[in-house]
Automatic annotation (TrEMBL):
InterPro entries assigned: Glyco_hydro_beta-prop_sf, Mannoside_phosphorylase
Signal peptide annotation: none
UniProt protein name: Glycosidase
GO function terms (MF aspect): glycosyltransferase activity; hydrolase activity, acting on glycosyl bonds
Organism for this UniProt entry: Tardibacter chloracetimidivorans
Similarity remark: Belongs to the glycosyl hydrolase 130 family.
Key words, A-Z: Glycosidase, Glycosyltransferase, Hydrolase, Transferase
Domain of life: Bacteria
């Protein structure tokens, strides 16, 4: 496992004050922070860093009176829904499956909102938690939460994608900001299941570009002997305005048949332009038990055509760290997951933000030579 001198957790569930949560005062029951994780990352005009951390706020006692309960936003307030226990499977602490449907149907034991966390320029100290600027559900699109922000700065404007969860669709929504701190909801931009849309930090021939990762229940086979493995892959799309997106004909980053470590994959940090081309940090998942083992890998894409992948690191640049989460052992409900969601280029090194174990925010300083050597 690759180790870096600067690699630590900077935000944990115990750092969150739920009395200042958007949900405070609505539910009449105790909640707790299931996780403070998967942070978008950007540099603010004052030089500090900003993490947009996902706060998964869960019911302390979801099961009571023969029912399991879920939190939902409805018409400007938060309510509880009760499901009879005989209709659900509650084996996973993060969700429960609802039986009796033709399709897989689930509900969440938590509702997620986004908290702006201002950090020192090196990303290692918390400067402020901006509860007054939290991003929470504001429409039926997001009635079960807003998840996994990714932030890109393009031409002096900050763009943030997030996953909006609702019964109607599992979609991607866009927020924008003039200062990286105050966010305005723009619109839904992808309406199919896609948790990993990340916008490139810069335009190509005047167009915005993004990596996407649509999911489905069926994938067609590559021919026998192919170097590629069928399954979820990282696709590409372009847009004239960051609102209307057209899929790109060429494939993006695909899972390799030679390794099970990328049997499932998806976008991580927004691609940034370096002297070598667009640097893309993405996650690969090795099948293991229920969730799998999440690691971070990298690829370099052509600066003029991101459909050309000219170099990929098959050794993970970042792996889950049991050492970092050992002090939080009493709060762990998931292991073997590092989910990278942001990167800032600092010249000699990259500051990388990740979610660790769906529990905490991790900041890692990765030397430039770890990738470009």
């Amino acid at each position: 496992m690759t180790r870096y001198p600067i690699d630590r957790l900077v935000l944990t569930p115990d750092d969150i004050d739920l009395s200042r949560s958007p949900l405070a005062g609505y539910l009449g029951v105790e909640t707790h922070v299931l996780g403070a994780f998967n942070p978008g990352l950007t540099r603010l005009p004052n030089g500090n860093l900003l993490m947009m951390a996902r706060i998964a706020e869960a019911l302390r006692t979801p099961v009571r009176d023969g029912h399991v309960h879920a939190i939902r936003w409805a018409d400007g307030r938060y309510v509880l829904d009760a499901w009879p226990l005989e209709q659900v499977d509650t084996a996973d602490p993060r969700k429960f499956m609802v039986s009796g449907n033709q399709w897989k149907v689930m509900a969440l034991t938590s509702l997620s909102w986004l908290l702006p966390v201002e950090l020192s320029p090196d990303g290692l100290e918390i400067v402020a938690l901006h509860y007054d600027r939290a991003v929470a559900p504001s429409s039926n699109l997001e009635c079960y939460g807003v998840e996994d922000a990714r932030i890109s700065r393009v031409d002096g404007r900050w763009l943030m994608t997030a996953c909006a969860v609702s019964p109607e669709r599992h979609s991607t929504v866009l927020y924008s900001s003039a200062n990286g701190l105050d966010w305005r909801f723009e619109d839904i931009i992808l309406d199919h299941q896609n948790k990993d849309m990340v916008i490139f930090e810069g335009r190509i021939d005047g167009h915005y570009w993004a990596q996407t990762r649509p999911l489905g229940e069926l994938y067609f086979a590559y021919p026998p002997g192919s170097e590629w493995r069928s399954g979820p892959s990282i696709n590409l799309a372009s847009s004239p305005d960051a609102l209307h997106w057209k899929p790109y004909r060429k494939p993006g980053i695909r899972p390799h048949a030679a390794t099970v470590a990328t049997a499932r994959m998806g976008g991580g940090a927004p691609p940034i332009l370096t002297e070598e081309g667009w640097l893309s940090l993405w996650h690969g998942v090795e099948p293991h038990e229920i969730v799998g083992i999440y690691r971070t890998y990298w690829s370099l894409l052509d600066r003029n055509d991101p459909g050309i992948v000219f170099r990929t690191g098959h050794t993970p640049v970042l792996e889950p760290s049991a050492e970092l989460t050992r002090p939080l052992e009493h709060q762990l409900y998931l292991r073997d997951v590092v989910f990278t969601t942001g990167v800032v280029d600092c010249g000699s090194h990259f500051i990388v933000a990740s979610g660790e174990a769906d529990l905490a925010c991790r900041i890692t300083h990765i030397p430039r030579e770890a990738i470009f050597a």
